[in-house]
Specification:
Elements lengths: L7 H9 L13 H5 L8 H13 L5 H8 L3 H14 L19 H13 L5 H12 L5 H16 L1
Length: 156
């Protein structure tokens, strides 16, 4: 067994892309313990090897979960992701909403109408109007971003 040397740059990059395994010490698979090529900090590599152990080497789910320091549901989730989208589906997804969701096109049009009637209307005032008329609570910066996106679409 070779001693693993810490590589802080690699860890930083893995973290930046959401691929830094939060529990690298839990990975007890022989490949990850015996060679530097297999890095237990690399979550994508860990997930791929986990899937490979089940699909290619036909290891039981329970044994695989123990070897890789994860729960059985995590193994099943990785298998399903891999079957649906290949290796790319094993990459962690960005948390949170994927698009603007508080202010739909209808409300943005209302805001534009308000600004047409009163070009000096501030976002904080628009927040109050949206709360009163539509029972929608948003932050002034959400309104600014929505109006900016609308303006960008218009200029394209």
């Amino acid at each position: 067994m070779t001693a693993r040397k810490p590589n802080n740059l690699k860890a930083e990059i893995l973290h930046q892309y959401g691929c830094l395994n939060p529990k690298p010490d839990a990975v007890q698979d022989e490949l990850f313990l015996s060679t530097d090529f297999f890095d237990p900090r690399d979550l994508l590599q860990v997930k791929y090897e986990m899937v490979r152990h089940v699909l290619v080497q036909e290891q039981p789910i329970v044994q695989t979960a123990l070897s890789f320091g994860v729960s059985r549901p995590t193994v099943y989730q990785a298998l399903n992701s891999y079957k649906q989208g290949g290796i790319a589906a094993l990459l962690p997804q960005r948390p949170g909403p994927r698009r603007a969701h508080k202010l739909g096109e209808e409300l943005v049009n209302v805001l534009i109408g308000l600004l047409t009637d009163n070009p000096y209307l501030r976002s904080a005032e628009m927040v109050s109007i949206l709360e009163e008329r539509f029972n929608v609570s948003v932050h002034p910066s959400t309104i600014k971003r929505a109006l900016l996106r609308h303006q960008e679409k218009k200029t394209q």
